[in-house]
Amino acid sequence: MDLHLDEDMLNACVQCGLCLTSCPTYQVTADESFSPRGRIKLMREVHQHDAPVTAEVRESFETCIQCRGCEPACPSNVQFGHLMERTRETLADAGEMTPRWQRPAFAALSNPRLLRAGSSALGLVQRVVSLPSALGLPDRLPIGRDDLEPSGHDVWLFTGCVMDAWQRDVHAATKRVLEAAGFGVMPTGDAAPCCGALQAHAGLAGRTRDLARTMMRALDDDTPILVDSAGCGAAMKDYGHLLGSDEAAAFADRVFDVQEFLADHLDRLPAGVPVDARVAIQDPCHLRHVQRVHEATRAVLSPYVPDLVELDDAGLCCGAGGAYSVLQPGLAGEVRDRKLAAIDRAAPSVVASANPGCAIHLAAAGVTTAHPMEIVDASIRRAARTAHTPLPSTAPAVAS
User: Is the torsion defined by CA of 363, 173, 297, 211 positive or negative?
Assistant: First the structure.
């Protein structure tokens, strides 16, 4: 079966195994077919030797979290993420992956009004009965959401789909921090409803390309585009590869993780009241392994958090993986257990995570989480209260 893979990229893997310690699914299973090396070997068998796509082959590809932790570890610079996305796309197109019953859920992501209405309805249900944990929902979905009003056009703030429906308060905190640094912020809103990351992971890359083109039309200027979701930022920075055009590459060059952007403007951030909490940083995979700008989180948090600590697991995945925790709950839970052990060893009061999926997945296991921008916002706002500056609302509890 032709998987439409780049032969040079596929053959770049020399099967050395240096990726094994960086692969979360191999670490919890010790199964070669659940490793990057094993998955590439199966790609070669299918693509180059016409091996059948058996249930075991599908399981190997479906159970990859696509954290891409193997890429920084690879001495041959194998672009495993692109190989896996292309493999999944080909298999999905052939009806071998992402069955039809799953696809309406991905389609809903690009309809923001429907997504918000559905989320609010689920939030109402949550107030009455407990919903199954297998749905992967936050403990308390919002019923109403405060509007994000534009304050200028120095930067775009990408609001997206699920995060805007479930965690608009993070966008609000991000917007306040940017404004405190003197930037006028234009939320993207429904004009750019979805980046396509979850669709690409599911093999629905054709839909991702459509969403990328919609995004590029909606944000058709030279203004920086800031993203406070690591997975979305990684997807948008990959538009040049996804679409294969100079226009898409130029668009991708305008995309910055918000911590990445603020790390270059630390002198513009106001002082805050030091956060009286032990804060551990959990690096989302798509910030650490794909965008590779995770050090910016430390640079931005350090002035506000005296007791900032690292986890000792070398950035291994937490198991969230977008929809992975819903589709592969068993493996996702085993991977999370390793992260929970690292968190326990660090003994923080709060875990800072710059990705909504990671935060929700960890919170479901009882971890207190906050977005880095929420922590910085709380510190700045507490300082403003001390100075008797009027504020629109109370600061998050992490600053208390």
Answer: positive
Residue 227: beta bridge partners?
158, 257
pLDDT digits (tens, 9 = 90+) for 277-303: 999 999 999 999 999 999 999 999 999
Question: E strands of 105-236, at which residues?
Answer: 155-158, 185-187, 225-227
Q: Tell me if 259 sits within 8 A of 293, measured CB to CB.
A: yes
- Token duo for residue 391: 């504020």
Element spanning 13, H or E: none
Containing 309, the helix (H) or strand (E) segment is strand 308-310
Separation between Cα atoms, residue 155 and residue 140, nearest integer Å: 31
Give the residue among 360, 399, 86 at the shortest CA–CA distance from 244: 86
Residues β-bridged to residue 185:
155
CA dist., res. 191 & res. 353, Å (int): 27
Q: Are 300 and 376 in contact (CB under 8 A)?
A: yes
Taking alpha carbons only, the member of 344, 342, 296, 338 closest to residue 320 is 338
Examine the pLDDT at 400 and tell me if it is beyond 50.
no
